Amino acid sequence: MKVILTGSTGMVGKGVLLECIDNETVEKILLINRNPIDISHPKIKEILHQDFTNFNNIKAEFKDYDACFHCMGVSSAGISEERYYKLTFTISEALANTIYNVNPNILFTYVSGAGTDSSEQGNSMWARVKGKTENFILNKGFKDAYAFRPGAILPERGVKSKTKLYNFFYVITKPIFPLLKRMKSVTTTSRIGRAMINLDNNPHPLKHLEGADINKIAKIIG
């Protein structure tokens, strides 16, 4: 299995990357980053790319891959709807279009969020934009596609969030992580990674996957 991965410098993306490195079925990982990651491994090929609204100059790199794990994302806190739209929908649209034009026979998974608005008509700005992004990806025509909608995500394996407030929360709640992990709605960075990998050989009838769905798929062996 050969994987294209975005967002590997973030909490979720880095967690997914670590699972891809450890999984024997993943033989190659193409990282698309703005800034270099602090991990070196024989499986990894990293491309530093600045303009995430246009991937035409690296589109040839997307050939012969089996899956794209699109883990890029930003918080909507403190930014305008215009900027959030660009960083969420516009970038995802550009990536999906470029990959589809080169390699439509691919599994595409997008990290969205719990509470996303598929109708695109609700009052919540971020939920509308995420819903539009999900709808675009799921209807693009890929071999298979999923929208991951985790709620609470616990970091594992030393992974940290770029958001200081989230890191503070994780530090003070770490003693009760074992209890939180037992909750069906709570998932982890490792489970998200394992679920994405497992979907390649184990398609799921649901295309919007909540925390409990992610946890269930992460347990699949073989």
Automatic annotation (TrEMBL):
Record-annotated NAD-dependent epimerase/dehydratase domain positions: 3-112
Subcellular location: Membrane
Classification via Pfam families: Epimerase (PF01370)
Chief place of localization: membrane
Entries under InterPro entries matching the protein: Epimerase_deHydtase (IPR001509), NAD(P)-bd_dom_sf (IPR036291)
GO cellular component, as recorded: membrane
PANTHER family in UniProt: NAD(P)-BINDING DOMAIN-CONTAINING PROTEIN, OXIDOREDUCTASE HTATIP2
Record's protein name: Epimerase
Organism this protein belongs to: Lacinutrix venerupis
